[in-house]
Amino acid sequence: MFIPDTYNINEVAGKEKLKKVISTVIQKIYKKYEMVPTLEKGLGSWYSEELQQVVYDNLIIASVHLEDVSEDDIKFFIKLARFIKKEMRQEAVSITINEALALI
Length: 104
Fold this sequence. Notes:
alpha+beta
């Protein structure tokens, strides 16, 4: 899962808002899988039609390793991505499952 550090598409998110979202993601993953995701800093980019340029965002990558991925697991991570999208007021949030990338 890719958690952006921006709010409302391109505004810098406050530290408390970002901490709350990351904490909720960790709790939901732990509750379902009894494991804590690995968190890493990353850099993402996207093309802004409004600005007519590529925009770079810092993001947090939350990773878990599952031996087998079921349809229920996929639905869980899509639901979690929708939570991040809503809380951070983003147009889309990216997730990868195995080697597939999805924009939610």
